[in-house]
Structure formats: C-alpha cells, structure tokens
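HUMAN: I'm a chemist; might I ask for a sequence paired with its structure tokens?

ASSISTANT:
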Amino acid sequence: MNSKKPSRQDARERILDVSEELFANASFASVSVRNVTTRADVNLSAVNYYFGSKQGLFQAVYVRRATLMNHERLQLLHEADERAQAAGCDVSLRELISAMLTPPIFWLCDQEKGYSVYIRFLARAYLEEASDMSNVLRQEVDVFDRFVPYFKKIKSGLSEEDIYWHIHFMMGVMHHTINHLHRISLLSHKACAVESGEQLRDRLVNFCCDGF
C-alpha cells in the first residue's frame, strides 16, 4: 500500500484544478471556500494558507493558465515575425490577429489537455467584479501591448487609440464566441454547427480582419 503523503504542491494544484472547474460553472459569489476544500479533499484553512483568500484563489486560477496562453500568443507572434523577416516583408494583419485568437479557440476545442474548462472560466473571469481582476488582467494587457507596434506598422492610418479599440472589440467577439458558441445552431435554424478548432479560428480571424 502506498502511504506517501501528498506534497504541498500536489495539494495546491488540486485546489486550483477543483476551483477552475467550480468557477467555470458558477459565479464567484456562489462558489464557497468549503465547496473547494471539500472537493479537493484538503483542510478548510488550505485556501487561506496557499492563496490568502477566496479572491486570491480566483486570481491564481486565472494566472496559472493565462501565463501559458500568453506565452503561446507571443510564440506565434515571434514565429510570424521571423517568417516576415526572412521574406523581407511585414507581419500580415491575419497573422497578428491569428496569434492573438488561436490559443483560446484551440484550447476551447481541445478536450485532451483539459484546457476547455479554463476557457469557460476565462469567459466568466472578465465579468466577475467581486473577484477584483484588474491587477492580474494587467498581464494580458502587457501581452497585447507587444502587438501594438506591429498593428501600427501595417495600419499606419490608425491612431494608437484606434488600435486599442480594435483589440477591445476583437476580444469582445472572442469572448462572445466562447460564451455562446452553442447558440449558433439556434441562431441559424440548425444550418450551422460547431466546427473544428481550425475552422472556428479561421472564421473568427476572417471576421476580425474585415473589422480592422
């Protein structure tokens, strides 16, 4: 019989996994610390020990995966930049928008890694005023700032203010798609169905390119 006691890191990750699922399916207010600790099979004091508060836990759930998602965005931007430099041209608008939107859409559609739960959580995170997300959302703002010089270079007629508005609208389209993807069947009288990650991403990128 294996009597090895779970490590602190195991307990912390288990709390984050359970919280991610609970917060993905219910509001910040309706998920209690006791709900989390019971499901994670840890002491009631564990949330305060690892995260300081329920609010700190919610933010930690966001940061854990957002760090990886934003790394993927910057990696796609880097690869597009390298291709453009090798071809002696600028990064295209389509590549910029695709780098921003591909990770969340692929995560939504990829059941193997289990990241689709986080995408549902992410859609809620922006709406949860009680969780005070402003400090951790700065991470995503910093990533989008890295895209702005590229947009300015290929869309010189747009002011920086215009570019940030455009990014804001693109994120709105993305979050609506994540939150209400199931509604496309009803909206289209069943003419449209949820497609593969690649097809869904391409539709979204095409729409946002036209908007830009």
Residues 29 and 130 are 8 Å apart (CA to CA). The mean pLDDT is 88. The radius of gyration is 20 Å.
